[in-house]
Design goal:
With 58 residues, this protein is mostly helical. It has one domain. Helices cover 62% and strands 0% of the residues. It has three helices and no strands. Helix 1 runs antiparallel to helix 2 (24-35) and helix 2 packs antiparallel against helix 3. The longest helix has 15 residues, at 4-18. The radius of gyration is 12 Å and the shape is flat. The mean pLDDT is 85.
C-alpha cells in the first residue's frame, strides 16, 4: 500500500504532465529528487527551474 506522501506526489506529477508550463525533462528531474527519499533542498529546486530545458541536475 502506497504512503500518503507517495499518493500526493503521484497526483502532483500527474497534474504537472498535463500542464504546458513545465517540460517533461524538468518533471523527470523533479521526480528524481522526490524519489531519492532525502529532504529536498531549495538549491536543488532552483537548479531545476532556472536551468534551460534539456539540462541535467549537477
Amino acid at each position: 500500500m502506497p504512503t500518503l506522501q507517495a499518493i500526493i506526489a503521484s497526483k502532483y506529477f500527474e497534474r504537472l504532465r498535463q500542464s504546458k508550463d513545465v517540460d517533461a525533462e524538468k518533471i523527470a528531474q523533479l521526480e528524481e529528487l522526490f524519489a531519492s527519499g532525502k529532504k529536498i533542498k531549495v538549491d536543488e529546486l532552483v537548479k531545476v527551474f532556472s536551468a534551460p530545458a534539456g539540462n541535467d541536475i549537477t
